[in-house]
């Protein structure tokens, strides 16, 4: 992804930011998107919304927080940087405050393996990390540890974060996680769902590898 032209990446990030709000994953100025670029990243600016983000307002930031331009980077730049530092394969990061992700995260609940598509995040659940104040290094460190073995996690009393091989794939993962959290909340209204067994998970991952059904980690 870093080999792409910077202007193209800026345009794509602004486009995907607007799309994330369009499909209801973020509202007003919540959430943030970034992509790896050279030795740092491009990230949505502080106070960004679908109405005001432009390619020019996207901020270039080093992984230790040095930034360029007229707009400050998102206050969550540390969380994005922690993921890039810990996971060299991560090329894009998406953080949202989508409704059903927030609902589970506010209960400090992981998303359990109630459906085989939970496996699309790399394991038999999606973990939830403890609450930390927004913008802090502790939040970034917790998220990066969770994303070492998953492509997404919930953030306690906050929202979600995921990593992808590019911006579009990361946005799709964020969308998928919101769908799965919604479906889990719905099935909980009927009672506690039956979770897939270890044997069923082994069969799923074996089958997924054979048909190249996602490259989870």
Strand content: 15-25%
The major sheet is characterized as:
8 strands, mixed
End-to-end distance? 17 Å
Relative helix content? 25-40%
Mean pLDDT: 95
- Which class in CATH terms? Alpha Beta
The quaternary structure here is single chain
CATH level-3 fold name: L-fuculose-1-phosphate Aldolase
The counted number of beta strands is 8
CATH superfamily: Class II aldolase/adducin N-terminal domain
Shape: globular
What is the H/E string?
A: HEEEEHEHEHEEHH
Helical segment count: 6
User: Radius of gyration from the CA trace?
Assistant: 17 Å
Show unreliable segments.
Answer: none
Structural class: alpha+beta
Within the largest sheet, what's the order of strands?
4-3-2-1-5-8-7-6
Q: In the residues, how many domains can be counted?
A: 1
Give an overview in words.
- This protein has about 220 residues and is α+β, with helices and mostly antiparallel strands.
- It has a single domain, classed as Class II aldolase/adducin N-terminal domain (L-fuculose-1-phosphate Aldolase, 3-Layer(aba) Sandwich), CATH 3.40.225.10.
- It has helices at about 5-20, 75-85, 100-105, 135-145, 165-190, 200-210, and strands at about 30-35, 40-45, 60, 65-70, 90-95, 130, 150-155, 160-165.
- It has an eight-stranded mixed β-sheet, sandwiched between helices.
- β6 (about 130), α4 (about 135-145) and β7 form a beta-alpha-beta unit.
- The longest helix has 22 residues, at about 165-190.
